[in-house]
Design a protein that fits this description.
The chain is an alpha+beta fold. 30% of the residues lie in helices and 25% in strands. The strands form twelve sheets. It has a four-stranded mixed beta sheet with strand order 14-9-8-17. A hairpin with a 3-residue loop joins strand 34 and strand 35. The chain starts with 5 loop residues before the first helix and ends with a strand.
């Protein structure tokens, strides 16, 4: 067995730093992906796989007037000769070139199932068939006339074109989409007629500006139609190569029966999957994220697309559309990134540069084609001249041929004796006897005249750039006349987008209920009808055993809720994010919406429409502390995780939070019926995480249960006890004093088992809502029906309670 020289092995080992080797190897791989797979060539707008598919089909003779051929055979031809990669990669590329919803101008005529806009996959390639269509032939036109360079294929057994002649400006009319390593390309499709007009305008005026081109090519023209909203994205994309183009569907509003409206969608934005869109809308409706939709169905057929969205009676179609635009792909952006290969180097190009590179490519193609045709015409003219000369001395030629022993001898004698070239001599020897007739002589003479005219024409094209440009324009106009179609995508002026998400939501007055166990529900206010004092009320919520309503407030779906907990933390929740429920449900747990700690309970809910600089949040704790903090301090993006609102002492809890403006008085009510009134100016504004100061002095066993702000919006205070008794007391009966006082009597309790639940500021036009703890009953009544009594009275019965029930919460309804 031969031995190996260790010295030789050592010489073949090269030591390199691993970091440098990985960097170099990865760069090589990245460039291979960029050049050989992901980015299109600026000249023909094709990636290698698409170019190889079209060329292989051309070599197979799959022309538009020929029969279809199985896609399996085409894929095998491409894999075996030009593209040694995965078969599905080749088939997917072939399928996309046949899909009318993927390419503005498909290049392949497919026969069979080639997928759908619903995302349905194509049939396997053993079932489908394909052939080139007439537009693909415009990409391949003149490829046999030495117009492009060829290079060896992967195993050096064949050659393949480096680029296609591409009379069709494919990069602009069909666009491109690809992801490379560290870069990507996304070029939108355009209308063929507009692109050709833009190219011709650039040929006529090389100094044309992009603004002038935009007047000719106003924007992309997507195969699925739909609408482009605004021109800013188009202008940016055409000037810089990058831009965001906003797309929306083609929508009409139809009136249906019963004062309902239907939203009809007939065209979707480019690359939006119809089936997934419908599933997403249905899912959002089920989750109550979309309001106003009764039903959605797909009525699309072979005649076209038709998605029907049936609306509820009260739904505003434009509001529902705004919600759909926000939450679904009905409104989406096409992110233009015109990155292409220029001389195998990635470059970001604007619209004019893309056109200029196409023109440059076509100039080269026409020049090479003309050179080829000129040489061919000259060769043929030379042969025809020889044949005509031979016919003029025919007898001598025949005599010479008859006297020659071999064909080679005859050829040599013709060249020497009559000064024919080798090519002419060969043509004379191969000439058939039928060509000796007078008619054939006339044909040869006419052919020679025509060839001379062609030679002159070709030479003029090569010598005169203006004539070459005319040839280019003539071919483009012919292409436009044969294949131009009307624009599909409409371009509309920019719309004013809703400034805030709430503007996409139907504004509706609602009742918000929050239970002690942390359940929250939203219901329309109109569910509750007015009743006289002493009525039974209607069911407002079904709670589980041991749970009862803690907070009741009336607000709108455009407000935000600041949710404060007993631990002194604040969470932010938008009202419309709360699922609308019926009166017979308990709602949803706040823990599904917010990241509450296990021991946290809701102590106050404040509806806020906007965070103002001149407004404060006033907080009161169970042990009588009060604190004032600017409302603006609570405007935070951390909505679900919560923020610190107040620093609490041990055994203390946050029990009430109110909005307050400067110069207002505050009242605090205790569980034993004591009421203290003082000015907010006695409380210095502090930051979020501070302790606060004493608001009222408490005796043992007494706690603060309520707080009101005297802001002039009401004339009376409503005081309610847990046993359902209450009264209105004139605000002026309680004179302001300094904070940290013991307060005065606000209501007299009948016995020690009763206690004050809270207080509300009222005026005669107001209404109140009272809810019970055990039965969950709600009663709604007018404030003027509640007796007006002095501060030393025990109040009147406001709600008829059963023995085991008690009032759990009260809320104000004010226009």
């Amino acid at each position: 067995m031969p031995t190996t020289d260790n010295t030789t092995i050592a010489r073949r080992i090269v030591e390199l730093p691993i970091g440098r080797e990985m960097k170099n190897s990865y760069l090589d791989y990245a460039m291979s992906v960029i050049v050989s797979r992901a980015l299109p060539d600026v000249r023909d707008g094709l990636k290698p796989v698409h170019r190889r598919i079209l060329y292989a089909m051309e070599k197979l003779g799959l022309f538009p007037d020929k029969p279809y051929k199985k896609c399996a055979s085409i894929v095998g031809e491409v894999l075996g000769k030009y593209h040694p990669h995965g078969d599905m990669a080749v088939y997917d590329a072939l399928v996309r070139m046949a899909q009318s919803f993927s390419l503005r101008y498909p290049l392949i005529d497919g026969h069979g199932n080639f997928g759908s806009i619903d995302g349905d996959p194509p049939a396997a390639y053993r079932y489908t068939e394909a052939r080139l269509n007439s537009l693909a032939m415009e990409l391949l036109r003149d490829i046999d006339k030495e117009t492009v360079e060829f290079r060896p294929n992967f195993d050096n057994s064949l050659t393949e074109p480096v680029v296609l002649p591409a009379l069709l400006p494919n990069l602009l009319v069909n666009g491109s989409d690809g992801i490379a390593v560290g870069m990507a390309t996304k070029i939108p499709p355009h209308n063929l007629g507009e692109v050709i007009d833009g190219i011709i305008a650039t040929i006529d005026n090389p100094d044309i500006t992009i603004d002038e081109l935009i007047k000719i090519i106003p924007g992309p023209d997507f195969p699925t139609g739909a609408e482009i909203i605004g021109r800013e994205g188009i202008i940016s994309a055409y000037n810089t190569g990058r831009g965001q183009i906003l797309m929306r569907p083609t929508v009409t509003i139809e009136e249906a029966t019963g004062k309902r409206n239907n939203i009809i969608i007939t065209e979707l934005p480019y690359q939006v999957n119809k089936a997934r869109l419908i599933e997403k809308i249905a899912e959002l409706v089920k989750m109550k994220s979309l309001e106003g939709i009764a039903e959605i169905r797909d009525e699309s057929d072979r005649e076209g697309m038709r998605i029907v969205i049936e609306l509820k009676k009260e739904a505003n179609p434009q509001t529902v559309l705004n919600q759909l635009y926000l939450h679904t792909t009905l409104q989406c952006n096409f992110s233009v990134n015109s990155l292409v290969l220029v001389n195998n180097t990635p470059e970001l190009l604007n619209l004019k540069q893309l056109i200029e590179y196409y023109i440059k490519h076509r100039e080269e193609i026409i020049t090479r084609r003309t050179t080829y045709l000129l040489l061919k015409a000259k060769k043929r003219s030379h042969i025809v001249e020889g044949l005509l000369k031979a016919l003029s001395i025919l007898d001598e030629i025949i005599q010479l041929i008859r006297s020659s022993n071999t064909t080679a001898e005859a050829s040599s004698r013709l060249q020497i004796q009559f000064e024919f070239s080798p090519e002419q001599a060969e043509a004379i020897l191969e000439m058939r006897l039928s060509r000796l007739t007078a008619l054939e002589r006339e044909k040869l003479s006419q052919e020679h005249t025509n060839l001379q005219a062609e030679i002159k024409y070709y030479q003029e094209i090569l010598d005169n750039p203006e004539m070459l440009a005319n040839v280019m324009k003539q071919e483009l106009l012919e292409l436009k006349n044969n294949y131009n179609e009307p624009r599909r995508t409409k371009i509309k002026e920019a719309i004013i987008q809703p400034a805030e998400e709430k503007e996409l939501i139907i504004k509706q007055e609602v009742v918000i209920l929050v239970t002690v166990d942390g359940y929250i529900k939203r219901m329309p206010l109109e569910l509750y009808k007015r009743q006289k004092r002493g009525g039974k009320g209607v069911i407002g919520i079904i709670t589980k055993e041991g749970d009862f309503v803690k907070e009741v407030l009336v607000t709108t779906t455009h407000h935000q809720l600041l949710i404060f907990t007993n631990l002194g933390r604040c969470y932010i929740l938008r009202v419309y994010q709360i699922e609308e429920s019926s009166r017979y449900t308990r709602g949803m747990s706040l823990r599904n919406l917010l990241k509450l700690l296990p021991e946290e309970k809701v102590s106050a809910v404040i509806p806020v429409e906007e965070f103002r600089n001149d407004c404060y949040l006033l907080m009161a704790t169970k042990l009588g502390l009060v604190k004032k903090t600017p409302l603006i301090d609570y405007e935070t993006p951390f909505k679900t995780t919560g923020i610190n609102a107040i620093k609490l002492d041990e055994n203390d809890e946050l029990i009430k939070v109110k909005l307050i403006e400067e110069g207002k008085d505050i009242t605090l009510i205790t569980s034993q019926g004591k009421l203290a009134r003082f000015s907010e100016t006695e409380i210095r504004a502090t930051g979020r995480y501070t302790r606060g100061v004493a608001g009222v002095r408490l005796k043992k066993g007494n706690t603060v249960v309520g707080m009101e702000v005297i802001d002039g919006s009401f004339t009376h205070l409503l005081l309610v006890t847990k046993r359902g008794r209450g009264k209105r007391v004139c605000v002026d009966e309680f004179h302001p004093y300094h904070r940290a006082s013991s307060g005065v009597r606000g209501i007299k309790l009948r016995d020690s088992s009763d206690m004050v639940l809270g207080e509300l500021g009222l005026k005669d036009e107001d209404e109140i809502v009272i809810i019970t703890k055990v039965k969950g009953n709600i009663i709604r009544m007018e404030a003027k029906d509640i007796p007006h009594q002095s501060k030393n009275s025990i109040g009147a019965k406001l709600i008829d309670l059963e023995d085991d029930d008690e009032v759990s919460a009260i809320a104000l309804i004010r226009e």
